[in-house]
Amino acid sequence: MMDAMRISLAGLDARMLALDLEQPEQPDAPDPSRVRRALVRAAEGLAGTLVREGGTLRLEEVRAAALLLDAAHLALGTVLVEAGEGTRLANVEMSLEQRPGHFALDLRSPSVELRGFALGIGELELRGTIRVHGFRLSIGDEASQVSGDIVEIESFELRTGNVALSVELLAGTRIAIGWGKPGFRLGAESIKASALRFDAGKTRIRAHGFVADDVAFASGGLTLAHASVASAEVTADLFSEVGAAPASRRSERPRASQVPRTPWVSWTTLDRVAGNVDVDVDVDLTVPILGHRKATHRLRVPVELGTIDYRALESDLATLENSLLDFSVRDRALVLERGIPLLPTRGRGKPIVIWDLSPADVALAERNRVRLAVLPSARLAREQEEPEEPRESGKRSFGLEHLGLLSIDVRLSVAQVESTVARNARDAKVSIERIDSLVVQGNVFHDPAGEGRPGSVLGEASNVALSPSFSLGQRVVAIGRLVLLHVTSFEVAFAGLKPTAVRVNLEGASLDRVTTTLSPARGPNDAPSSDVPSRIASSRA
After folding, report:
1. Is 354 within 8 Å of 329 (Cβ atoms)?
2. What angle do CA 187, 189, 194 make, to 5 degrees?
3. pLDDT tens across 363-383, in order?
4. Cα(395)–Cα(516) distance, rounded to whole angstroms?
5. Where is 364: in which H helix or E strand?
6. Rounded mean pLDDT of 451-455?
7. Which of 4, 11, 13, 114 is nearest to 58 (CA)?
8. Contact 291/320 with Cβ under 8 angstroms?
9. Which range has the worst mean pLDDT, 42-46, 281-285, 426-430?
10. CB 64 within 8 A of CB 92
11. Chain-centre distance of CA 482, in angstroms?
12. CA 28, CA 332: separation in Å to the nearest integer?
């Protein structure tokens, strides 16, 4: 029995050569997570040496002018690399060493076409037909990598968790995919895609003319320096269950409104708003003595430098409400109060809603104007300043039966931000840098005692610059700067006051400094699924 064997590959007829790099313990039912095999259809100009010494197998200085494979299957635990029939490598250089507990492969080729390529790492799957210039595959015990200088991928698919990305034709430069103890990582100097489909949970993006620079994906997070699209459609389902009727009408008094801890938009953005807000507010109230009070308030609100004329807004109310309700400035606050019809009670009426004002805002309010940024800080006066009035038996208190925002017609712009502090505000999910034009139209309905009535708003916008942060599936996405040249249309569907779906169509968009991180609900140490090699193998059967 020989302890060592050396075979020269020069002149070897490699047609239909099956090279098994590991013998499974059960040959009749091989474990797809352990098999390593290459089926060679033909090899031209083959040279090199096969060496077997004891339990070690080596391929030394292997070269081939052309190598045509029917199949290749390299599995290392939960990592699987596959290539299918028709895979071709030109001017191949390869070395391999295998012994118990050790496997090292280095393969280089200036021109490669990998048909039926599949890469499985944990919960991540990558597929496609790949053409590579400057190809290298390096597999080691602790780290492995496949890379190419110029890469084209047809029918590209990438899946991880509930995130799926597919591209008809993807082209890139300096692309590298690595795995092993350092974790999965993907990097690219540049990527171009003719048509791109992205799905994450209930969010879908369809884009054309996609270009990205300096892309990196590692440790569950994505970063890219810059990206742009010629056109795109974005749709998102915001809630799975909407419109559920409340079991009973709440009897307790409403709590004072509070400023959200993390508003979608920084309130300071409102200081840069200009335009017009027109809406017909259809209200049905239950009131003492009268029973029902139905009225339509036709609000026509010009916005100048982020401020509105609250006395003009008051005059837009229906006749009865205008005679009962007054705005006044008192105790360093703007107060909406209930007065007595036909009597001059302004400033002495019963407070209903209070907006605390800074000295500058007090001076502004004395000229009948209030900043939009002040309005979200409203608080109810009756809860803190007056005891609850006893309710007589059989009398109904105030209650909202129906609210309709009809014939909404909003035409606004947001001036360019000057302060970098405002641009990078940490107190909002979306920091708005500028909006040249925003038009919104539609109808929204609210019926507290019934199911959410369908409504919607439609609109368009131009030259929008934002810095958004939002959730996408199990990840949080932050964009340093997002510019939308022309939002040709957008639609937000509502059930009651709850937005249920969003659809946006745009032409021309760019993104800078994009990062994604795992949301707190899923940490970086959570173990991913490890059955991808089995699933890929079974899909080949």
Report:
1. no
2. 95
3. 999 999 999 999 989 998 865
4. 56
5. helix 359-365
6. 86
7. 4
8. no
9. 426-430
10. yes
11. 13
12. 87
